[in-house]
Amino acid sequence: MLLCANMSKEREDSSPRWKSRGSKSQDGSISEMEELPVPQNIKISNITCDSFKICWDMEARSKERITHYFIDLNKKENKNSNKFKHKDVPTKLVAKAVPLPMTVRGHWFLSPRTEYTVAVQTASKQADGDYAVSEWSEIIEFCTADYSTVHLNQLLEKAEVIAGRMLPFSVFYRNQNKEYFDHAREVQENRMLPSIKDNSGSHGSPISGKLEGIFFSCNTEFNTGKPPQDSPYGRHRFEVQADALFNPDTNLYFGDFYCMYTAYHYVILVLAPKGSRGDEFCKQRLPLLDITNNRFLTCKQVEEGDGGLVFHHAQDVILEVIYTEPVDLSLGTVAEISGHQLMSLSTVNAKKDPSCKTCNISVGR
């Protein structure tokens, strides 16, 4: 069963009154009943981005008297502060006693990729509305998981709604400072090498901090059909013909959809040559897109003429394309752009706006 069906997130002004053995309740009475068993050997399993299963062992004594469980769930960084605003007020979750294991689920208090601590009390609700409680169990630590492909498909559907019409393009480009390209030539055998993706975008993204790749752009200016001359990432630009990175031997994956408290929305896509290490990583974690028919980035064979490839990108989102393999600079050209370096537009480690209804889904942020 789902614990959320029988659980409330308690606030200080509405928390249940409780008392341990021999302590005074709020009406001044004394509880003299047998102590309740303390949960032992707590186990956490089946962890997702916004749920987990919990079970524990208990001594048989007074087991039949247990009516509720009190679960103290805290983000790990706060585990030593403000555990109780008042010693007789539990801070977190109250659940009816049900067979174990049981599932704790709730996007309003569980977020993906977040470390938590959890401790449990057993409780017995009394006729006067108070609770007799056990001592707290040991504190257990665990970390919630990334978004699953189910959650990413929900993000994908939201992104498709606002992608807009498709515009033609012919090159991928990457802006960096001059030193970056000098280093690639002199130290990396004339190659740009993949690096670990930063923590920008959705907090639950399964590629953040894990997938290795090289970021490229492909968006064009609506009035010129060419890449913009401004960039937040540097005044030197590497341009490469689109078919060098994107062709029928490449798989395309949807990675993320987010905004940064602005009207602009970003879609992260992953280009992975079939059979590559990046491709194997994405197969297990990301929705696969049809390269000839999707709302973001397409590659199609021309039926007439020389049978070459044509490419289109979505107009109304900013595409961040991650290519998972090294790229030789000899495949393209490096030149200085004429525009400005607009640092305010950088998405490096950018935090997603958790309140945006356009790009959030109903799971932990």
What is the mean predicted local confidence, pLDDT? Answer: 84
Oligomer: single chain
**Biggest sheet details:** 7 strands, mixed
User: Which blocks of ≥5 consecutive residues have pLDDT under 50?
Assistant: 1-15, 20-33, 79-90
Order of helices and strands: EEEEEEEEEEHEEHEEEEEEHEEEEEE
The first-to-last residue Cα distance is 24 Å
Strand content: 25-35%
What class do helices, strands and sheet pairing give? Answer: mainly beta
Shape: elongated
How many extended strands?
A: 24
Counting DSSP H or I runs of 4 or more residues, the number of helices is 3
Protein name: Fibronectin type-III domain-containing protein
Pfam families: fn3 (PF00041), PHYHIP_C (PF19281)
Family: Belongs to the PHYHIP family.
Function: May play a role in the development of the central system.
Description:
By secondary structure, the protein is mostly beta strands. It folds into 2 domains: 3-143, Immunoglobulins (Immunoglobulin-like); 149-345, no CATH class. Helix content is 8%, strand content 33%. It has 3 helices and 24 strands. Strands 1, 2, 5, 6, 8, 9 and 10 form a 7-stranded mixed sheet that branches. Strands 14-15-22-18-17-19 form a 6-stranded mixed sheet. Strands 3-4-7 form a 3-stranded antiparallel sheet, with no helix packed on it. The longest helix is centred in the middle third of the chain and has 14 residues, at 149-162. The radius of gyration is 27 Å and the shape is elongated. It starts with 6 loop residues before the first strand and ends in a 29-residue tail after the last strand. Mean pLDDT is 84; it is low at 1-15, 20-33 and 79-90.
